[in-house]
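In this supplementary section we document a worked example of the pipeline. Step one takes a protein sequence of length 633 as its only input; no multiple sequence alignment statistics are reported here. Step two produces a three-dimensional model, which step three serialises into structure tokens for compact storage. The input and output of this example are shown verbatim.
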Amino acid sequence: MCVYSFRIIKKNNLYKLFISFLTDMLYTMQISRMIALIGILCLAVAANAQELDIELAKEYMGRQEYEKAIAVFERLADTGYDLNFIYEPYLQALLQTKNFKEADKLVRKQIKSFPQNPTFAIDAAWIEELEGQRSKAETSYTKLIEDIKKQKEKVILATFYFVKLNKPEWAEKTLQAARQVDKTKAAYAEELAQVYGLQGRLDEMMDEYLNLLLVKHEQLEKVKTLLQDILEKPEDYERLENKLLERSQSDPQEIMYNELLLWLYLQQKLFDRAFVQAKALDKRYRLLGSEILSIGIISLKNKDYKAAKNMFGYVIEKYPQSPNAGLAQHYFIQAKEAALMNTYPVLEADIRSLIQDYEQLTAISINYSEEYAEAVRRTAALYAFYLSDYEKGIAILTQALDNPRLDTKIAADYKLTLGDIYVLKNEPWESTLLYSQVEKAQKDAPLGYEAKLRNAKLSFYKGDFILSQEHLDILKMATSREIANDAIDLSLLINDNLFLDTTGKALKAYAEAEMFMFQQLNTLALDKLTVLIQTYGNHSILDEALWSRANLYLRLGKTTEALQDLARINENFGTDILADDAYFLTARIYEEYLKDKSKAMELYQSFMIQFKGSIHAVEARKRFRMLRGDFVN
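The serialised model returned by step three reads:
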């Protein structure tokens, strides 16, 4: 090594300086100390030289100058450099130059030094394969697998090395051989799933992830995460559903399949199907309806009111003495109201029935609980919005607000609704006062942001777009995503329609129509929108006006007119922001109002193709599958 070091010194024209240095040392140091120092210096220079060689070899490999790289690797090997640090690039250089003989020597040397590492045996077989000895290579691979199949660490190491060499078929054979030794269906399930994934074999991949649960139930959440990563297309969800149903039927006592089905249906917002699985879990774990209640609330938030009512009704009937029954009753009435408000026209008799439900609920609820407060608030709103009895609504809320022990959050909620009623009465100053009180009392809280949004809308209704924008600019940064999105939408509406029309006449007319709609003054709203559409046929506000009028027609039970306006949006604004909303509502009208199953299916199917990224895509697919009869059983 020292000789090698002197060569480097000489090569770099340092030998004269080095000799001079040694001469000086003779006069100042003992011979023994000088010899030791020379040894240390030799080692340091040699180490530095090796590092330089490694960098040089990397540079040659990067430039694909493999012969030069091999020469450097050979020099390093001759000096005793640890082969482990250069093995991979050295082997790669030899294979690139088809120097199979030297490559085999290198691999055999590593096998001799590290007989417990199966990757070197794989390399030896790989060289045979590259030499064209395919049959011999396969025999070598097979022998290796046979030798290591009982040793888990070697199995895993070999598997991932086969994958690295892009040989997933041999990785699979390794794992399958090891599984036969283990004699359990779940052995090496996760590794096999990854190998199948590399081959695009989604069916087998899903099977292996499910096999993981056969002996490790506690891995349910992990399996959900793994499955979520591979569920990309609607067909993937259907494939997994079929597998779970098949396993559940063949092993009905295995409850984890019900849990996975429940999770899968919730991913797709198939709440009726989720209800079926939730009932099985409820019975098995004696949950007293708590899981069903939670799923019912999710269903309600996702506007599947029918499924929500079914779930809440089940809890009320099945567990009448449970604490969950009271909550279920509360949410059942909410779901009933939401369903009613989305069915046009709304009948007075239905409103009075709903009010009676809320009044009965307040009679049995604990005073000033959240359920009690919500029932009071909703009762007041129903009187004002649907029976036009503003004074009754105001009286109910005013009386409730007089209670000095009232929770501040509940009081804020009451004031928001009271402010809305004053908008109905066309007393916007009272509304602004109430909204502003809530803004101040609930600053930086969701209710405070909601109050500011209502003030922004009120300014919009009055045509004060500058003040409205001031509110909206703050709300765009709100922590509530829903409020922030509403603020952004209204802000864009204002900016887009004032950009080319600085007078704002068309936007003011539209804002007035929106206020009439909020006030349930449907005839005035319809007249205002119709004049707007006729007068400003080429204005950027046209699609918004058509959308509002279509929804107003639907509220009035005029489906033909609603469909005509929706068609105009899709024909003239097919790539704009309301296009998917209009198309989806068209399909819903054919399904829910006209009961034209065939036409609705056609529209939902077309929607899934045209609007894949829409927020309605999941719901469209669910409705299509229901109409097709996928969920008959």
